[in-house]
Structure formats: C-alpha cells, structure tokens
Design goal:
600 residues, alpha+beta, GIY-YIG endonuclease, Alpha-Beta Plaits, five-stranded mixed β-sheet, 46% helix, GIY-YIG_endonuc, DNA damage, SOS response, DNA binding
C-alpha cells in the first residue's frame, strides 16, 4: 500500500493518547514518543521552529508516521518506555539504558518479601506494575506495612532451618513490624493469607484498606492530630488516583500475538500486536480488499497468516476476539475477562482508528472513491434500487399556526448543495396542519421540477413520522411519481425511518454513516426552515404594528426601520428626529400614535 504524503498523515491522526513512531524513507525507525493528544503533539513537530539541531535534522528525515492508540496518558508513558528499549531509535536520547519504571515484587520464596525494584529477574517472583512514580510505590508499600507485618530480612527461611533454630528475631520483631517467622512465631499459612491480601491491594482492589485509612484519619482528626490526619489524607488521594495495572503491560503475558479485525462493505482491517515479556514491541495494521464478500472470520484467518509470515513470528499462542483456524501449531485463545481481554480490545481500538484514518485519507487524496463507498453503503442500508446521489429533505416550521413556512435542502453526493435549497410560504393551508403543509410543499416542489424539466432526486426524506410521510406520498401520487422516487420519513425521538406501506420502522446503527448523513439532512432542513420562519415572523411583527397606523404606508415603514433599526427606537424617538427621516406631517402622526397611547 502506498504511503500517503506527510500532510495527509498529519490531518488524519486521532485526538487520542498514544505512542507515535517516525520512520525514514527506508523504513528505519527514527524516534518514539508519547502524547496525550497524538494529533496536536505530532503536528507540533512540523509547525514549530526547533531550537535543537537534532530535532530539525530528524524532522527532515521523517517519511512515515505510525502510532498506537492506548487508553490513557499513563499507558502511553509505559508503552513508550518499552518501545524505546526494544527498538533503540536513533534520535531518542532517554530511556535507552536498562533502567525502567519501578515495580513491586513479591519474591518467590518461603515467607515472601514485598519490595520495590527496577529490575525484573526471571526466578518465578511476581512483579506488579510498572508504576510511573516511586511516590505511588512507596504509598502502596506504606499501606501494606501498616496493615500487615511482613519480614524484611533476606534469610532463607527453610522449614528445617527454622526447626533447628538457625535464626534469631531482629529489631523489627521487637518494634512490632514483624511477627517472627524466623523463629516459628508465625505460621506459613497465616503469612501466605496476608500475601494473598497484598496481591489484591497491588492489583488495585484496596477498597477495604482505604476504609481503614479513612477511619484512622477520622481518629486523628477527633484527637486534634491534624498533621497525622493530613498525612493519611495525602496517601488516600494518591491511592484513589492510582492506576494499578496498565493494559499495555502485564508480566504474565509473554510471547503472544494479538489479532483483531474490523470490516465494512469493501475492506477488512486486521490489527496485530506483538507482546514479549508483558510488553508491546510491535503494532501493525493491514488493509484487505474483499473479493468474494468474505466474513470477518475469513479475513482474520488470512490476515493472521499474512502478518505472521511477514514478521516471521514464532509465538506459540495468539489472542483473538473470536475462534479462528490458525493451524495446529498455534494455540488460539479467545479471552473473556481480565488483562488478556483488555489487550484484545486495545487491538480492536487500533484497527478502528486505522479504518477511520483511511477514510479521512481517502476523502483528501481520492474523494471519488470515498463518495462511491458512502453511496453504495446508503443504497444497501436504505434498501434502495439506485444510489441516492441526489437527496432532498423537507421540514415545516410554524408556531401555533402563525407564519407557516417550509424548507427543502438538497444534498448531492452526500454533501450540501446550498444553491439548490428552497424556501416555501404555505399558501393553501389555514392553521397549524403539518400534514397538509407537507403535502403542499412536496407537490409544489416536484410540480415545478417536472414543468421545468429539471433532474429529480433519487431519495426524498420528510422530517416526521407516518403522518408526514403519508402526506408526501399523496403528493407524489398526484404527480404520478409514486414508485419513481424513494421516500422515507424520519421520526426524531428514536431516529426511526418509516417507509410507505410498512408499519415497522427501520432502525440504523447509531454509528453508521448512512444515519449520520440523514441526520445531517434533517438538522440542516430544520436550521434553514427555522431561520426563514424567524425572519418572516420578525418582519411581520414589525410591519403589522407600523402599518396599522392610519396615514402610514409601506414606504414610510421601510424608511423608519432603515434609519432607527428597531420598533423600540421609533417609539422612543422625538418628533424632530422622526421628521428628519419622513417629514414633519408623517412624523407627527407616528409621534402622536405612540405618545397618545402611553398617556391614556
């Protein structure tokens, strides 16, 4: 697939947190960065003047921009760390060493210790994190130590050594910080129960622990120990804002490929995430053109084979959103809950964003293809015999039957054609009768198009339910156009689409482009109609009062409004200022009319 220009790539970036990667024309990685808003951050590289020569050189070399969308800025920070260490980009100067963010380790040993570390050792120990701040780690460990008395020594507390009294309790025992398992004062079962509780805390399930903290804070406050109360309050705030685990990293997920697929009527988009040692080390999405109306299952199976061959992946297990056949040598897992499910959802999110970007790019570099795709989709969704290249939508506007008007807006190839918009004054209907008004304007619109030999639309939309739709159908029947032009009604409440003769409405997917275009038509017709109605009502209100003055005609009304701008200013004007505009005789009539009224 040809890489779009940098300008197109920038315009189609999402406004989401994530990690971006810059590549040169040879496909070599230049830089990895994180962003709270990918579009704003990446665009800034190309719009700002750079003081650093290094960044200026890098920007000149950028040929392709790739990105991975994640759930939060914290996830972006952690993923950036992993990718920099894995890919070692030329222009990244930080995070290339073997240091990493802190973890909490539950050591794989009898009577496990719990401590912070920056290094992961593959000895069977449990690592939770990583954390973006040591402040969070220390707060968690303070919470744990306050609730559970754990050993801090590094003795090998084997059962036979304890039985032979090889160790003596230390100062921590006498200070009340340890229960003395080294001398057998605490059993292994009790100690391990505490470790199970600690696992829940570091996973983020510390509701009970927070309740205890709040009780302690209240006790300190009651005892007027406000400094201690504030210290505990600070810890509560850190814990409440703490994000325990990242969807990006989990040390238990190792050597796994993650695949997902999103498709539409013409293409499928398969995303691939590669995980090693709990970290994402690669993300890639491919676009696949449908040839035989393939299902998502078939597209995903083809995509898995293609991507694993392209990247020479040997991972023994894959995570997918539904069951697929990937061969006998690969274990296929369909996660339902937990971190495994979250990583599949992350893959799906990246596939969706990729599809949206391709649509945006298509609009810019190949607008005809985009229009053709949307029109084909509308034809299928609305069960039409032809593509609705020309659509017209009608809406009535009146307030308690006053100044009834109607509007017709026109969309061609899915876009407003404002030069074809039309306004209608209702001529044959008395009072607030939307059904009769709709019949009148639909009849007048297409009677004129027929008389003038103009092009007729492929689709008519009326704003309203079955009643307005029936009126529109009746007008078409009178003109002999019933069955020659498709017509539907849209009800506002549930966005229901009604068809002539069908009592059951059609409900479109709320996210579908077809519904969005129909809603845009309906909203534009309402806006256009209500603006016309307000202008007419306002003009009518002004003219009616001034023209009711005996001896004042339309020409005088226009002159007064042109000069004074409002009825209020005319009422408040002096007789002399009125005379300067319309002459002394008419000025006296207007002045006496308002001032004699106010004196009654």
């Amino acid at each position: 697939m040809e890489i779009p220009s940098l300008d197109v790539q920038l315009k189609t970036l999402p406004d989401s947190p994530g990690v971006y990667q810059y590549f040169d024309k040879n496909g070599k990685i230049l830089y990895v960065g994180k962003a709270k808003n990918l579009k704003k951050r990446v665009t800034s590289y190309f719009t700002k003047r750079h003081d650093s020569h290094r960044i200026g050189v890098m920007v000149k070399k950028i040929h392709e921009i790739r990105h991975i969308v994640v759930s939060s800025e914290t996830d972006a920070l952690l993923l950036e760390n992993n990718l920099i260490k894995k890919l070692q980009p030329r222009f990244n100067v930080m995070l290339k060493d073997d240091k990493t963010y802190p973890w909490i380790c539950i050591k794989n040993e009898r009577f496990p210790r719990v401590f912070p570390t920056r290094r992961l050792v593959k000895d069977g120990s449990e690592y939770y994190g990583p954390f973006t701040s040591f402040k969070t780690v220390n707060t968690l460990l303070d919470l744990i130590k306050g609730l559970y008395k754990l050993r801090t020594c590094n003795y090998d507390l084997a059962e036979d050594k304890i039985r032979e009294n090889k160790f003596k309790v230390c100062l921590e025992y006498h200070l009340g910080n340890c229960m003395g398992p080294c001398e057998g004062y605490q059993g292994e079962a009790e100690y391990n129960r505490n470790i199970d509780h600690i696992r829940q805390i570091v996973k983020g399930n510390f509701k009970d622990s927070l309740s205890q903290f709040r009780e302690q804070m209240q006790e300190h406050a009651v005892n007027m120990e406000f400094e201690d109360a504030q210290r505990i309050k600070n810890k509560i705030e850190v814990l409440e804002n703490y994000q325990s685990r990242s969807t990006v990293v989990n040390p238990k997920i190792n050597n796994v490929d993650v695949f997902s697929v999103i498709s539409d009527e013409g293409y499928g988009y398969v995303n691939f995430l590669q995980l090693m040692h709990g970290s994402i080390i690669r993300s890639h999405t491919i676009e696949m053109k449908k040839k035989l109306d393939e299902t998502d299952e078939e597209l995903l199976e083809l995509g898995i084979t293609e991507i694993r061959q392209r990247f020479n992946s040997k991972s023994p297990e894959i995570y997918v959103p539904f069951k697929v056949d990937a061969g006998d040598e690969v274990k296929v897992t369909v996660p339902k809950l937990g971190d495994k499910r979250k990583i599949v959802e992350l893959s799906e999110r990246n596939a969706k964003y990729y599809r949206q970007e391709r649509f945006k790019q298509m609009k810019i570099v190949d607008p005809d293809r985009h229009v053709n795709r949307v029109m084909a989709q509308m034809k299928e969704d609305l069960r039409l015999s032809v593509e609705p290249r020309h659509i017209e939508c009608f809406d009535n506007s009146n307030i308690q039957g006053t100044n009834p008007v109607a509007a017709c807006v026109v969309f061609k190839n899915g876009k407003p054609s404002k030069k074809d918009y039309r306004k209608f004054n209702i001529k044959t209907v008395e009072g607030p009768n939307d059904f009769a008004s709709m019949e009148e304007v639909v009849y007048r619109r297409y009677k004129r198009l027929l008389n003038e030999g103009e092009e007729l639309p492929q689709l008519i939309i009326v704003d309203g339910g079955k009643g307005q739709l029936g009126s529109g159908v009746k007008a078409l029947e009178t003109l002999g156009l019933r069955g020659k032009i498709a017509i539907v009604g849209i009800a506002k409440r549930l966005e229901e689409l009604f068809y002539p003769g069908d009592p059951i409405p059609l409900y479109l997917d709320k996210r579908s482009e077809t519904l969005k275009i129909i809603q845009q038509l309906r909203d534009e017709a309402h806006r256009f109609g209500i603006t016309f109605h307000r202008n007419k009502r306002s003009k009518s209100a002004l003219n009616t009062e001034l023209e009711s003055i005996k001896g004042i005609g339309e020409k005088t009304v226009v002159e007064l409004l042109k000069s004074f701008r409002s009825l209020k200013r005319i009422k408040e004007a002096s007789e002399k200022s009125l005379a300067d505009v319309v002459g002394s005789a008419k000025a006296k009539i207007v002045y006496d009319y308002y001032h004699s009224e106010s004196s009654d």
